[in-house]
């Protein structure tokens, strides 16, 4: 006899939560927002649990849900912060060189528009194919290619200044 749906869902969340939270953090760039995003996506997944026939596609379903929710949040968000060319002076904690580089890369990634950040995260952090990303974002493969290409160009431009300041 198979497990009850709520037990299956609980087992899925217990096994996949860390990976899904990492993806959510990369999408939102904030731990609290990432936890909210993952919780919202898991709630929607639980409500649709009985309708999801392919249990092997659950990660993709949750990722797609997170991307959709995150885009909705971005659309509703009022512009409360104004971009500036000057970064505030903040002391860098005594971390290893690798941590500093990672933090610098995260800051650069945070500056990308939501769609570009989502495409880069899904491609290079989650290692999805262009076809899988297109499905997750609901766009064509060509759009994924151009979005990732533009995002990588922006990342390269910004990396020169951001990461060189750490040396």
UniProtKB/TrEMBL annotation:
Listed InterPro entries: RNA_pol_sigma-70-like, RNA_pol_sigma-70_dom, RNA_pol_sigma-E_actinobac, RNA_pol_sigma70_r2, RNA_pol_sigma70_r4_t2, RNA_pol_sigma_r2, RNA_pol_sigma_r3/r4-like, Tscrpt_reg_LuxR_C
Domain of life: Bacteria
Coiled coil: none
Alphabetical GO biological process terms: DNA-templated transcription initiation
Pfam families associated with the record: Sigma70_r2, Sigma70_r4_2
UniProt-listed CDD domains: Sigma70_r4
Residue ranges of every copy of the HTH luxR-type domain listed in the record: 109-163
A GO molecular function held by the record: sigma factor activity
Keyword list, A-Z: DNA-binding, Sigma factor, Transcription, Transcription regulation
Positions of transmembrane segments: none
SMART domains named among the record's database cross-references: HTH_LUXR
Protein family according to the UniProt entry: Belongs to the sigma-70 factor family. ECF subfamily.
Protein name in the entry: RNA polymerase sigma factor
Organism: Actinoallomurus iriomotensis
């Amino acid at each position: 006899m198979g497990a009850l749906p709520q037990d299956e869902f609980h087992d899925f969340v217990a096994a996949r939560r860390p990976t899904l939270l990492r993806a959510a953090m990369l999408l939102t760039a904030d731990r609290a927002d990432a936890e909210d995003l993952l919780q919202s996506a898991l709630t929607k997944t639980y409500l649709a649990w009985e309708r999801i026939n392919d249990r092997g596609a659950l990660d993709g379903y949750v990722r797609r849900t997170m991307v959709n929710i995150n885009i909705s949040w971005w659309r509703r968000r009022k512009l409360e912060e104004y971009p500036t060319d000057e970064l505030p002076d903040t002391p860098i904690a005594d971390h290893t060189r690798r941590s500093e580089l990672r933090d610098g890369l995260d800051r650069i990634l945070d500056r990308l528009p939501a769609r570009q950040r989502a495409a880069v995260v899904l491609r290079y952090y989650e290692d999805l194919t262009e076809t899988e990303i297109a499905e997750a974002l609901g766009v064509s493969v060509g759009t994924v290619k151009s979005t990732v290409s533009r995002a990588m160009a922006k990342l390269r431009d910004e990396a020169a200044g951001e990461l060189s300041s750490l040396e």
